[in-house]
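Lab notebook, bench 4. Still working through the backlog of constructs that have no structural model yet. Next entry is a single chain of 106 residues. Request: give me the structure tokens for it.
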Amino acid sequence: LPYLYERGDHTRLIITEDVVSALRCYEHGDILALGGLNYQKEFISCVILKYSEIILWLDGDKAGRDAARKFCDKWGRFKKVRNIVSKRDPKDYSDSEIKEILSDRN
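Model written out:
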């Protein structure tokens, strides 16, 4: 099941595959952990509509890259979507690395 934690401003949503990765990113926006790639698409669609910026940070394996491509193809026409591709899962980075990766400069 997806896990959503909303901080309240509804401007930036960070989407990860797992809860631990999402929690590592919570200081930088609202977070949504998909709970794997077989997520409830209708629920996710309803959540996404509230946000002006979507940051997608899925796992770097083939399944994660394929899911990210499909997501960007679908939502990139309607929302500002930034796909982060990294060698490690978000949970494997330090706080300062996560801050740098999620900064608008990247």
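Notes after review: Helices lie at 19-24, 41-48, 62-75, 95-102. The two ends are 30 Å apart (CA to CA). Flag for follow-up if needed.
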